[in-house]
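Curious: why these numbers?
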Amino acid sequence: MHSQRISFGRKTPRTGVELLRDPLLNKGNSFTAKERKDLNLTGLLPALVDAASDTESSYQERLALERLRKLSNDLDKFDYLMRLYDTDKVHFFRLISRNVQEILPLVYKPTVGLACENYALVHGIGRGLFIPITETGNIISILENWPTRDVRIIFVTDGEAVLGSGDLGAYGMGIAVGKLALCTALAGIPPENCLPIVLDVGTNNHKLLDDPLYFGLREKRATDDAYNNFLAEFMQSCTKVFGKDVLIQFEDFGSENALRLQKQYNAHNCTFNYDIRGRASVILSGILTAGRKTGRKLREETFVCFGVDESMLVFVRLLVETLKSHCSLSEREARSRMFLVDNHGLIVKNRSKGEVSAEKAAYARPVGTPEMTDLKEIVKYSKCTSLIGAPGAPNSFSQEAMSQLAEQCTEPLILVLSTPTGKVECTAEAAYKATKAIYLPSLLIFYYLFLTFSSI
């Protein structure tokens, strides 16, 4: 019997049980009567033929939602959805696209942070590649183990800075899989063109190293030449196996490595760093959009940027350039709108405590500015209108600081960047109470950036 070719962006001669076990091609009860006959599926599926339409949900969608809603916690819901991803990508992505508000927070932020912290409990085989540093010299053969060659976008992480959870080592696979699921659901990139990868270079997370369920390398993170040589081999191997045009997105690397690797490989590889470029663009977009609600022009804003590290400086530079190009401010005027805060307090030139790097010094307050560490005092001194958070800074926006912001600004802007929910700078409830519900809340979730990948 000949084999009719069906695909989710891929042609295959598979039939029967083999076809049903292929998550890219399986569509369950949606196989028509003719397809069931031609593809040797008769008897392997119930009699129901599930015909989906643009206006009505399919039987499988209704069933998936019913099962999902019976689960009591978000981690179990994440696990259920990813098991669907493992077996039937057609209906997994259809479920997301038709139920965006309900499903996206379960497969990505904020739930994905919780899932990464407990990834041994929700991990599924075959979702991506794990490349341990112990396989240095063998990376090409590992990449060739991936079942498809038409890979156009790679999300790679070493798991050092996963959302607000920090160093999760091999558990970073959860964020790589989640991000690429959004590339398909929101940007329409076929899943067979996407490859999640974890570079397992160890972890400095003692809790994981002592956890008998942790499945990554049980050793401290590699550094220096061992790390750099491993990364160099990985980058070269990707272009040899998948071509020079494959997009390699660095995901949740530590800020120091993220900036360095982006600079090192950007000239010769097609690279992108979401945590640096993506975050900066979406924060700026949020500020510009909020202006429609507050009634303030961008040039009228004064910003306190909390938790500034090297990656957040990319946003600061972008904001300064925007103030110059769109608001006709001088470099000096644009920088005067910035009050940057790091783990030592307000960044002031030649401050007595906490060295100021050359990159931060360019945006530091002038000599003679009071050296402050209390966020409320910084908000009051700056007379700011906007308070911008930073990933990995839980409960950093105190009630006193937010109350002060509301006191000095009738329409304060508070941007919360951290996830998961338990590690945010402040909750919406806390902000409403502190500002007497007059502020404009914004938990920035970076979904819209994925639409820019749709031309890949």
The domain at 1-51 is CATH 1.20.1370.30 (Hemocyanin, N-terminal domain).
